[in-house]
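User: For a benchmark we're assembling, each entry needs the component sequences followed by a predicted structure for the full assembly. Here are entry 17's components. Please fill in the structure.
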Amino acid sequence: MRRITLRHCIALCCCLFGLFSLTTHAAESASLDPLLAELGEAKIKDMEPILVRIEAVSDESILPLLRTLLNGNLYYNEAEKKVIGQFESNGETYYKDVFTDEINAGIDKRDVDKIRVNNKLRGYLRNAIARIQLTSKSPSVRENAVRELLSKLDDSTVATLESLYPFEINKKVKDAMGLALAMNTASQASLAPSNRIAAIEKLSTSLESDVRNLLMQLTRDDNAAVVDAANVALGKIEERVNRFAFVDQLFFGLSLGSVLLLASIGLAITFGVMGVINMAHGEMIMLGAYTTYVVQLIMPNYIDYSIWVAIPAAFLVSGLMGVLIERLVICRLHGRPLETLLATFGISLILQQLVRTIFSPLNRQVSTPSWMSGSWEINPVLSLTLNRLYILAFALLVFIVLVFVLKKTSLGLNVRAVSQNRNMAKAMGVKTNWVDAMTFGLGSGIAGIAGVALSQLTNVGPNLGQSYIIDSFMVVVFGGVGNLLGTLVAAFTLGIATKFLEPTTGAVLAAILVLVFIILFIQKRPKGLFPQKGRAAE
Amino acid sequence: MTRLTAWFSEGRSTGKHTLPFVVILLSVTILASAANLLLPADSIFYVSTYTITLLGKYLCYAMLALAVDIIWGYCGILSLGHGAFFALGGYAMGMYLMRQIGDRGVYGNPLLPDFMVFLDWKELPWFWLGMDQFWFAMLMAVLVPGLLAFVFGWLAFRSRVTGVYLSIMTQALTYALLLAFFRNEMGFGGNNGLTDFKEILGFSLQADSTRVALFLITAILLAVIFVVSQKILSSRLGKVVLAIRDSESRSRFIGYRTDRYKVWLFVYSAVIAGIAGALYVPQVGIINPGEFSPINSIEMVIWVAVGGRGTLIGAVIGALLVNYAKTRFTAIMPDAWLFALGAMFVLVTLYLPKGLMGLYGQLKAKRNTVTNKESQA
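Assistant: Structure for entry 17:
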């Protein structure tokens, strides 16, 4: 699904290009068309000079053509002496004008011949595309073009870069160009070593993998001074790369922590505040995830906004289910925690089977809104995926809202009163039955919201909840029952610990080690990290 | 004979089922076995080998239910991880059976089981050594679950981890083992577990006579464990265990080291679970990490809850009934089984807190109140 969204974006870009080219294409077509016809008829070894001439007479508007050719989708219609692009949609083959994107329905497969390209031509085409982009009006296009060129600098591109460098006004683009030129200088064995060493020093500030590859080559250089400089530069780069790798790992740890926090925070309320073991908590998460799926089914054309509908919907669905469970089962088992555990486990089985019956036992696909897909590239070695970033922020937001509800609203006051001393609260006129139902509904509703978030990260299936229930219990028990802050600390501690263990031990062993650690920890401190103090403690 | 009867029936309320239970269990077992071995296949009284194996499986489950009941019903420790002890016992037996295959495996390696050859291992891991000896494997089937239970119980009960915390800890324990046994590197066959067994002590596992023998042994061991558990629980030690269940802190203040009682009872229960696992594996012919999954352990609890916890006979009846229902249900409408199981959890905890064994008492109490009301009216 994500791939399709990406494809949509590309299609959109192509359309924009098409519009743009409509305006300019008319003026040039006079000189371009014969060249294109020549291209279509040329043999593969004669194509490069023709492409040089095409590049000389055209501007950015030629890019769609070059890209189509690069992908091997450019065809030549001999009868009309025109080139045409081929594309496939739903298994059908269509032909379209590469500049205007107009579909040409009158053309059959037999009318056209593929314009073939080989690896040498592909390399040339990539460079040509980058060179054309270098003169683009948008700085980001120019910057990407320069970065694209880093791995394949040749004389012509270096010449282009050198001519453009003094006139570049955007700092980022200029830095990138400077980097490319420095790479060129450093790699030229004919230049004076002092110049090359200066260039290498300049390279040591970059994190591009191409730069690292070049420096690796330079450590085998004939000139000893250059080798030393390259080694020093590599050391510097390595150090920074390691630092960013650490940040990356930390981010994944935080991301796992945020998932654990979302999954366990509802449990922290029902288990911590009410003292009720809800084994069906995982199924509340699952219901939330399925609600997201259903919402997307209802509004397939508004996936980007569906999440804003799904969050309250999931809260309501899971919350109402929670209230129902509390009223029908849990309130009759007051003060019998082990029986509550068994009964709610039964409910979890029923809910799982219900979902299996309604939606099939197979996993369901939930699409990611386009604004959540992709990643935030901070530098070449560190990029943070957006959906994880949003979920981290969302988890913290949910946590803050929940703390606010418990500390500042009258519902929160009642909940705390009942959890501290049920009988006294009752004597003061608190409707404990109502508070119980609301608390359970709140906890379950939050689990539903967690389901919305989780549907963006993992598969949505009937077993979704089961895979989180044990982890969630661990988080709550580790943090200390009845303590939301403890849950927060525990979730992030466990998340980060797991992710830092993983590279050395592997994912499964890391999970086992964390479980064993918690089992041992609970033996030592049965009340968790932040035990309840005072009269509220048993 | 009368002395034997008296010995069986010793202990007041709970012991009264012992003699009838042992008699019924053994006579049914012997009749079924005889019907399988002696009667021709077309006789209406013929019992198929499939049924014998199924019954044997049920009896293993009954033994497991006894183990759960002993700690939950009598000591109030709800373990959601008894599947782990069962599976460990099963793995010990599985390892023995695996070594018995010898060079008849697919790869024909006389020393290494197939999956190790497949993983390109050159020699047997240290924990597989000695497993080709039956007595050693059986020792391990008892010792390993016992040791795990001892370490876990010693740590947990000494730091007074009780109630739901303990339940969740035991669940985490079996979950951790589940993850561990799924790994190929552990050397227990990973995902596929151990299977393709050929023979036990030289007898082919496919033969009817071996199956009947295994069934008989299971029944006899179940009877022995039943009687021994009954003796233990109706002894002075059993009374202390009940006291701990009803009020742990009071028992502690009176001067009993409650943690020691709990640890030893937990170990005893784990050992029974291990034996049940060891008997289970040759009858079903496979052991894989799925046995560690938390849902299995919770199912065991519901057997006991349905039958009636706190009575050994209830655990056995519950295990037999629920598993029979499961066999029937999954054959007729597989989708409905989980609904039924879930509903059973909810309804039993809500309406049958003492299980089927308590049903009679519940009905009697109800009739009494009704008659009381009538007499008052």
